[in-house]
TrEMBL record:
The lineage of its organism: Eukaryota, Fungi, Dikarya, Ascomycota, Pezizomycotina. The keyword Cytoplasm does not apply. It comes from the Eukaryota. Coiled coil: none annotated. It holds the Pfam family Fungal_trans_2. The keyword RNA-binding does not apply. InterPro entries: Fun_TF, Zn2-C6_fun-type_DNA-bd_sf, Zn2Cys6_DnaBD. Keywords: DNA-binding, Nucleus, Transcription, Transcription regulation. GO terms for molecular function: DNA-binding transcription factor activity, RNA polymerase II-specific; transcription cis-regulatory region binding; zinc ion binding. Residues 7-37 form the Zn(2)-C6 fungal-type domain. This is Zn(2)-C6 fungal-type domain-containing protein. It is found in: Nucleus.
Length: 501
C-alpha cells in the first residue's frame, strides 16, 4: 500500500494507506485507538519545522500572538532582535471581538460566560464547551446574540428579584422580540448563517422561555418543533450523526434531552416522531453504546424509555376519549403489556448499573472527579425511578399511595440528598425533573423534603422555572380532584403547558 498524504495523523505517521473515513478511519477503528485528522502546513515544499520561518520559531526568536480565538500571528520577541536597537513594535490596540456590542450586551455576555451558563452545566468542562461553541457563533448571528443575552438577563433578573415577574421585564422582553425578528429574517436565507446557528437560536429561545417559567401553551414547544424542522432539513439525504461536528452533536443532545423529558412529564402529544426516531435520533440508535450523557444526567437507553412512556400515555388518553362505553380507571390490555415491557427495560438498566458504573462518553470521565462520576450515577438512578413512577401512574394508573410508587419516591429523595445541595458545578443542577415527579406523589413529610430541596436548588442555580415548579406542586397538592388524578390530567384541566426543566 502507498502511504497516505490526506489521511489521519496515525496512518500518515505509520506511512500506511488510510481510508479517510470519519470520524474514525478503518485502521484506527480496528486498532481501537483515537483517530485524528490534522492539516500540516508547508512552506516551499518543506514541513513547517524545516522551513526557514519554522526554524526562527524553533530557536525561540518568534512568539505566537493570539488576537482572537483560533486566530494568531507570529511576532518577534521583545529584546531579542540582533543589530542596532530600534523602536519597539506593538499592536496599536488589542483586537476586541466584542467591540461592535453595546455596553449592556457586553455585560450580559460576561454574565452568561461566568454565571448563567453554569445553570445547565454539571461540570466545568461542559460549561467551557458551551461558551466556546455558543459565544463566537452569537457574535456572528444577531438572533442568537439577542436570545443569549435574553437568557442571561433572565438569570440576572432572578438573582436581583427572585420572586418577581421575569419575562415581562422590559430588557428581557425587548431582547426576545429582537431575537425573533432577526430569526424570521435569517430563516429566509439559512445558508447565510448556517443551520447550526439557527438551531442554536431555537434552542436558546426555548431555554429562555422555559427558564422564565412560561406556562403559555406552545411558547416553548414551538421552538423545539422549529429546531426539529431545521435539523431534519439539514439531515436530508445524509446521516448527520456519523459526520456531525462537536457543536452539532451538542445540539442533537439538547434536542433529544428536551424531547425525552417532555414525553416523560408533559401533557399533550409527543413532540415530533418520538415513537419512531429519525436518522438524527442519537438516543434511538440501537447499535450505539448506552452512554450516561453528562448533559442529560441519564443514559441513552433510558431516554428512549421516556419517549415510549410519553407515546404510550398519549395513545391511551386518546383511545379513552374516543372509546364508547369507556370506564374511568379501566386499563386496556395492550397498555398493560406496554407497561410491563417498559418496566422490564428499566429494571434491566437498574440491574446492570447496580453491578457496574455507567459508561460516559469517550473523554468525559477523564476530566471528572470520582465524586462527580458517582453523583452522575446517582442522578441517573433518580431518573430511573422517575420512569418507574410514570409507568405505574400514567399507564397502570396505580394510586399514589401504592408501595411501589412510594419506594421510588423515597429513593429519588435519597439520591438527590446525596448529590446536593451543592454551590459548585455538579449534577445537582439536573435534578428539577426527578424532584418534581417525586413531589407529585409525595405524602406527609416527604412533601416538606421536596419543598426544601427545590428551594435549595432555586437558590443555587437561580432559574425561575424551578420556583415555578414548586408553585405548581403546591397547586397540585391543594387542587387535585382525587388520588387518581395524575399530573398530566391536572395540567390538561388547568390548561397549563409546563415542563419541570
Amino acid at each position: 500500500m502507498s502511504r497516505s498524504f490526506t489521511g489521519c495523523t496515525r496512518c500518515k505517521a505509520r506511512r500506511q494507506k488510510c481510508d479517510e473515513q470519519r470520524p474514525k478511519c478503518g485502521r484506527c477503528q480496528t486498532a481501537g485507538v483515537q483517530c485524528k485528522y490534522a492539516m500540516q502546513l508547508q512552506w516551499g515544499g518543506r514541513a513547517f519545522s524545516r522551513s526557514r520561518f519554522g526554524a526562527c520559531v524553533d530557536t525561540g526568536n518568534m512568539q505566537r500572538l493570539e488576537y482572537s480565538p483560533g486566530e494568531f500571528i507570529y511576532t518577534t520577541k521583545a529584546g531579542e532582535r540582533k543589530g542596532k536597537p530600534g523602536p519597539e513594535l506593538s499592536l496599536i490596540q488589542s483586537v476586541d471581538p466584542f467591540s461592535s456590542l453595546s455596553s449592556e450586551q457586553k455585560a450580559l455576555l460576561h454574565h452568561f460566560i461566568n454565571d448563567a451558563s453554569q445553570a445547565t452545566a454539571c461540570h466545568s468542562g461542559m460549561q467551557q464547551d458551551i461558551c466556546r461553541m455558543l459565544v463566537p457563533m452569537a457574535l456572528q448571528t444577531p438572533s442568537l446574540l439577542y436570545a443569549t443575552t435574553a437568557l442571561s438577563a433572565i438569570h440576572l433578573q432572578a438573582l436581583q428579584n427572585p420572586t418577581g415577574s421575569i419575562k415581562s421585564a422590559p430588557d428581557i422582553a425587548r431582547s426576545m422580540a429582537l431575537s425573533l425578528e432577526h430569526f424570521r429574517k435569517e430563516l429566509q436565507n439559512p445558508s447565510a448563517h448556517g443551520s447550526e446557528a439557527l438551531v442554536a437560536t431555537a434552542r436558546t429561545l426555548c431555554l429562555a422561555e422555559i427558564h422564565s417559567g412560561a406556562i403559555h401553551p406552545n411558547s416553548w414547544r414551538a421552538h423545539i418543533e422549529g429546531a426539529r424542522a431545521l435539523m431534519k432539513a439539514t439531515d436530508s439525504g445524509e446521516n448527520a450523526t456519523g459526520s456531525a461536528n462537536g457543536f452539532r452533536r451538542y445540539l442533537d443532545r439538547w434536542y433529544w434531552s428536551i424531547v425525552s423529558l417532555t414525553a416523560l412529564t408533559g401533557n399533550g402529544p409527543p413532540i415530533g416522531e418520538s415513537a419512531d426516531p429519525g436518522s438524527a435520533d442519537l438516543a434511538g440508535r440501537n447499535d450505539s453504546p448506552d452512554y450516561l450523557d453528562d448533559y442529560w444526567g441519564f443514559t441513552v437507553n433510558l431516554a428512549a424509555v421516556f419517549r415510549q412512556i410519553g407515546a404510550a400515555a398519549w395513545r391511551n388518553t386518546e383511545a379513552a376519549k374516543n372509546a364508547q362505553g369507556f370506564v374511568e380507571g379501566e386499563i386496556d390490555s395492550n397498555v398493560e403489556d406496554e407497561a410491563a415491557l417498559l418496566e422490564m427495560s428499566v429494571r434491566q438498566l437498574m440491574d446492570r448499573d447496580a453491578s457496574s458504573q455507567p459508561s460516559l462518553y469517550p473523554g468525559v470521565a477523564e476530566g471528572l472527579t470520582a465524586e462527580s462520576v458517582q453523583q452522575l450515577a446517582l442522578c441517573n438512578e433518580a431518573f430511573q425511578h422517575s420512569a418507574l413512577i410514570q409507568i405505574n401512574r400514567r399507564l397502570r394508573r396505580e394510586p399514589a399511595t401504592s408501595a411501589i410508587i412510594q419506594q421510588s419516591v423515597q429513593r429519588i429523595l435519597e439520591c438527590t440528598a446525596q448529590i446536593g445541595p451543592s454551590a459548585g458545578l455538579s449534577p445537582w443542577v439536573l435534578l428539577t425533573t426527578p424532584l418534581f415527579i417525586a413531589g407529585c406523589e409525595a405524602r406527609g413529610k416527604d412533601r416538606d423534603t421536596v419543598r426544601s430541596l427545590l428551594s435549595s436548588l432555586h437558590d443555587t442555580i437561580h432559574i425561575p422555572n424551578v420556583l415555578q415548579t414548586l408553585k405548581f406542586l403546591e397547586q397540585y397538592w391543594a387542587n387535585q380532584l382525587s388520588e387518581d388524578e395524575d399530573w398530566s390530567h391536572f395540567l390538561d384541566r388547568m390548561n397549563f403547558d409546563f415542563i419541570p426543566y
